[in-house]
Amino acid sequence: MTAPALQALFDQGTPTPEQIQTFVESNGPFPIYADGQATFVFVGAADSVRWQHYIFGLPTSQEFNRLEGTDLWHLTVQLRKMSRIEYKLLIDYGDNAVLIRDPLNPLRARDPYGANSVCATAGYERPEWTWPSETTRAGRMETHKIYSEALGEDRYIQVYKPARFRESCRYPLLVVHDGTDYQRFSAFKIVLDNLIHRLEIPPMIVAFTDPGDRLREYAADPRHAKHIVEEVIPELEAHYNLEERALSRCIMGASFGGVASLSTAWRYPKAFGKLLLQSGSFAFTDIGTHHRGPAFDPVVEFMNEFRKSPGRPAEKIYMSCGIYESLIYENRSMVPLLQECGISVRFEEARDGHNWENWRDRLRGGLSWLFPGPLWMIYE
Amino acid sequence: MSRATSVTLLGPQRHKPFIKDVLEEYGIEGQLAVITGGWEEREAEVDDLDQHLGRPTLNLRLHERFQDVMGREQRFQQALLDRNDRLRIAQTLYRRRLHQALESVRSLYGLTLPRMELLMAERSDALRAVSDLDHHYLTQIRGIHQAFLDLWDPTLNPSIAGARAELKEELQSCGGVLIAGGNVSVLLDQLYLLKLRPLLGTLPIVAWSAGAMVLTDRIVLFHDSPPQGRGDPEIYDDGLRLAPRLVALPHAKHRLKLQDERRVGILAGRFAPATCVALDEGNGVHWDGYEWTPIGGARTLVADGQVVEMVNR
Questions:
Q1: Residue A259 and residue A222: Cα distance in Å, rounded?
Q2: Domain with A235 in it
Q3: Which among B12, B185, B250 has the least Cβ separation from residue A377?
Q4: A136 in the same domain as A101
Q5: Domain count, chain A
Q6: Best residue in B228, B234, B253, B280 to probe A by mutation, most A CBs within 10 Å?
Q7: What pTM did the predictor assign?
Q8: Contact B228 A369 (CB under 8 A)
Q9: pLDDT per residue over A123-164, tens digit each?
Q10: Nearest residue in B to A170, CA atom
């Protein structure tokens, strides 16, 4: 069904460029979301326009319709409420095609590859605890450089110290994979400042680590696990007063970072009592071969091994995954496996995809479940 | 039993403190003792407070003193841990029953029927069941506290008695007492176990946030939107009963859904006849020994679900 505003334009006959311009100005920004449908609009000369999205389960590319005799292109798709979808437009000019962000939609989500347009349907709102707040006490960052014997090169660790940090206090520890990306694209430092300030999580030390060759190191590479546990942790222990018990230590990551977290905890089962795994790339094969490309070969090998002998990599595991991701099946299938090992598991699904804003929006649920703050008892 | 002297309860004081104005308004003069034990290890960090007041305060260092007693009295510490274990179990059982009881109340508040008088009768009976449960829980934990006190009378223990003697002397030179917020559980333990109430005598008290909560008859923990858990308001313990007939709800604007008439109505109805007072930034209430007077437009929660400006009561 065509959006009413668009239908009204069509009913006037073939619109002039001026009428199209007026329509766009008075009805934008796009897409328009109503009655469970999102209507996308593009205005410009082209041979074809396609909606390129990242929703697993739908055709990856859907073609816009052109209003005959005009440069107005439109597409209406059914989308569920409370959804957040990242997309681009593929504009085909005949001799070349370009992938662009939707010029009629100001909403953007940045990631390491640039930015996408965002379609947020009714009910979705960026959580207020992800925005900077003037009244929040801010933590501080400091950088450590260490030489990694395991990886054969220098590595930098950015360490978050909570506001009102005290040398004499012991703190829980959170180790984050893809630390710089989490800060840039998931507002992780702002989230930490806010959640700690609001007493939803306790003050903690957070080590943001970054990979060198990400697809190799994070694909369950034992050298990476050794680097984290035998090099990063001792460096942190030497500089900060950390709680010693495993239940006060957590390692986390998204996508391949989720695999790296699980692999590290599995290889060093006493090191971390808690895991926070977001959209983990937990590809495995029950039979036959996988079709995810060579980067996944070591991941699948590890996951097959893990699924045979999961052991007890942690006591509490928070997992999240978007329902529009291809990894939803693998993530769902991990839950009973981990629970059967006696691990306390919380799994959260979101109407979102494999992206940094999905991971940002799930941080409060994950961190406050793994590290409950003193909210109930403190009235300052 | 309340005292016929001045008790003032205020909302949070971090961003826009007005304690100094309150002291002037109620003529509280002389040296001020300050209790910041709810701040725990930050107890000594009173510079901002002193700066606001324009004069140094006398910090009673309850946290430090309490820790000192714990360090010296291993058996006392062990008995306290045992007491806390029992309290935790009682709290777990209470929470389990409370959730069911509140669900029942909430379902009735969500209904509308042509014969509302029948529904109203069911609502008040369900609410009474929650109040009964609150009373039952208080009875249980009073028993646990009493068992502990039978073993460890604070007035008989030499370490505690020593700390109390020092506190008594320090308080004799003071014209008033300030009690800051922080961890309500920690603060309450310090006040109870150092048996501070008799030492306060008739000194005027100004308290804010958790400090206000501990002075009331019953301490109620609350947060309508916690990131985890159900957010059911719950009784924590008896307070010091220096601020009668009132439930103190500091940071209400942030912690409670004050627009939600159902939640407000249930909260107010459950603790009636005590008055639920929203203590937010810039407001408070004053007790002169006879009645409560609002300060700065303090609001109360009413059983019909409204939040209204408080009047003297």
A1: 12
A2: 128-370
A3: B185
A4: no
A5: 2
A6: B228
A7: 0.90
A8: yes
A9: 999 999 999 999 999 999 999 999 999 999 999 999 999 999
A10: B41
